[in-house]
UniProtKB/TrEMBL annotation:
Pfam families in the record: SRAP
Gene Ontology MF, one: peptidase activity
Protein family (similarity comment): Belongs to the SOS response-associated peptidase family.
EC supergroup of this enzyme: hydrolase
Annotated protein name in UniProt: Abasic site processing protein
GO biological process per UniProt: protein-DNA covalent cross-linking repair; proteolysis
Amino acid sequence: MCYYVDAKLAKKQIKDAFGVGYNGPDYEGSSFVNGFAHPNIPIILDDNPDEAILGNWGIIPPWAKNRDGQKMTLNARIETIGEKASFKASVNKRCLVLVNGFYEWKWLDAKGKEKEKFYIQLDNDDKPFALGGIYNVWTDKETGEQLTSFSIVTTEANELMAEIHNTKHRMPMVLDKTIQEAWLDDRKIQDFSFPHYNPKLVAKVV
């Protein structure tokens, strides 16, 4: 799965890496972002691919009365994304989640009491890259506030990630530049699952 990312991105980094401006409040991010805190992270939406905005991690489906379920929607499994109530309305509402990397822990014993922490990136000379996400714009009926929230889509792990994430064998949908536009263009979502698409990743112990 994917619950911790490096999202310390300056406006210039977003512009240089993704060719878009950033439209939102001041944002510096952090090199260790915990999804369970429902942080704001820069994302690019399919209906406005020329700018980045802040999205809140943990999708809130259209029917939700409040934000209580966000801790359960940090990730969306690509195999069942069209079946789950929280995600099926957003299958074709795609976004790019902008990061420098993400973290995963390898279990060194059967019960996970000893673990090794890895930092994983797209193999692209240490530049920011995108994770595939889905999103929804949710309206709080009590306050009228609108919130753009997202989930990171996960797939079966490739060889490298299966070695690291050696319990559940999952990985986030890592998108290189050649496939980002296709993700936003609503191509059939299963086309992006492993092994149909297999990004080249690098990892190091941290």
